[in-house]
Design a protein that fits this description.
Elements: E1 11-14, H1 22-27, E2 32-38, H2 41-45, H3 47-57, E3 61-67, H4 73-83, E4 90-95, H5 97-109, E5 136-140, E6 152-157, E7 163-168, E8 176-179, H6 189-207, H7 214-235, H8 242-262, H9 266-277, H10 282-304, H11 309-322, H12 329-347, H13 362-367, H14 380-390
Parallel strand pairs: 1-8, 2-3, 2-4, 4-5, 5-8
Antiparallel strand pairs: 6-7
Helix pairs in contact: 4-5, 6-7, 6-8, 6-10, 7-8, 7-11, 9-10, 10-12, 10-14, 11-12
Length: 391
């Protein structure tokens, strides 16, 4: 067994109805809370007003910040500037992955008087953050990114010279992650499918990463099992079932832990390069690229070595997701591709051209795409095939 290291975890509260205890949990950190949410769903459901009232009921002064898209440096800097002098004791983010990343970044920057862009990975003259932050509580309302258990916040700048990179420090791990599957019941089928495929991608990429360990393998396989039994139901006729939502929330939670300890593959490499070039939701990008990326990985592994150990992992994932057991690696890999392709067709994942990607952009995107944790080293031609097939 190869040596491995593990990152810490937040205190995790998982279960239907846990949202009702949120004010008491937040109250243990002090008297002033900044609540970060999306711009619509929580307000329209009435949960935001109930949360603010419950926070006031435990004696807290509550401020509210709404985030309407994936966080940019300007969104983070503006929020920090607005609330830096309010002596915030805890940041509480309730929303999808973008909201959690925004809250995570805000908590990390409230104790700094510098723009967040100075600390983002890959930027020129990047500075090392020392880990000082305001305590942070993460409450996901979608099942996808696993940001509630990771130590990075993804920040985006979209355009020709855009990027999608992380603000990262082990201290940025949320202090508490509270996951209540009831919060996901009102999520639309389209959002459920996109965020769910993000979780599925993370589980599969962490499972087949060169940095995987027996620990991350166990998490990935468990997550894939729960995901497979409820994904289509959550996207179609049983999205209002809390048990179904719990399965996908659990899978997303495990995907976050697995990726933090094993890394991710080429789909998430494209999430950085394509996601910085065109304005496309992260989950949608994962959904539309996963089957073709997996096809290229399997083909490359078969070319290198027909008995490559990672083909056995892909085959096992195929058995789990399809529900059809097989001991034959080739058949299992084919089952995986067939299952992913069926989901893509049934759920109508959109193509990249719908978000403005042009054929002439592909060469540039491939030239700036990196993925050191992919199952196999892909050449430029393979990466071009992945993007071209889904453009």
């Amino acid at each position: 067994m190869d040596a491995f290291s593990l990152l810490p975890l937040p205190v995790i509260h998982f279960g239907v109805g846990r949202f009702s205890s949120l004010a008491d949990v937040a109250g243990t950190f002090g008297r002033t809370v900044l609540v970060v949410t999306g711009s619509h769903a929580l307000q329209h459901s009435g949960r935001l007003s109930a949360l603010m009232a419950s926070l006031q009921g435990v004696g807290m002064q509550a401020f509210h910040c709404a985030v309407d898209r994936e966080p940019s440096p300007e969104i983070v800097d503006n929020a920090v500037s607005m609330y830096r002098d309010q002596s915030i004791d805890v940041v509480l983010a309730v929303g999808g992955g973008s909201v959690l990343d925004a809250g995570k970044a805000i908590s990390a920057m409230l104790r700094y008087d510098l723009p967040v862009e100075r600390f983002i990975e890959g930027q020129k003259d990047v500075m090392q953050h020392d880990g000082r932050k305001v305590p942070f509580i993460a409450v996901p309302t979608t099942s996808g990114t696993g940001s509630e258990v990771t130590n990075n916040a993804v920040i985006s700048r979209v355009g020709e010279n855009g990027y999608k990179r992380s603000l990262r420090h082990v201290a940025f791990l949320p202090d508490i992650a509270l996951i209540d599957p009831e919060l996901m019941i009102t999520v639309s089928p389209e959002m459920t499918a996109a965020s769910g495929m993000d979780a599925c991608t993370q589980l599969l990429e962490a499972y087949t990463s060169p940095y995987a360990s027996p620990y991350t393998d166990a998490l990935s396989c468990s997550g894939l099992e729960y995901f497979s039994r409820s994904f289509l139901a959550a996207c179609t006729d049983r999205g209002d079932n809390s048990a179904v939502r719990a399965d996908i929330a659990y899978a997303a939670l495990l995907s976050g832990i697995a990726l933090a300890n094993a890394g991710l593959g080429i789909v998430h490499g494209f999430a950085s390069s394509v996601g910085g070039f065109i304005d496309i939701p992260h989950g949608t990008l994962c959904a539309t690229l996963l089957v073709e990326a997996t096809r290229e990985n399997i083909a490359c592994l078969r070319f290198v070595d027909g008995d490559h150990p990672l083909l056995k992992k892909y085959a096992r994932a195929g058995s789990i997701l399809s529900g059809a057991c097989t001991s034959d690696n080739a058949a299992g890999c084919d089952l995986l591709l067939e299952t992913l392709n069926n989901w893509q067709e049934r759920l109508c994942f959109p193509r990249l051209q719908q978000f403005g990607l042009r054929s002439e952009d592909i060469g540039h995107i491939v030239s700036v795409t990196r993925s050191k944790s992919n199952a196999v080293q892909l050449d430029d031609a393979a990466m071009q095939r992945i993007l071209s097939s889904r453009r």
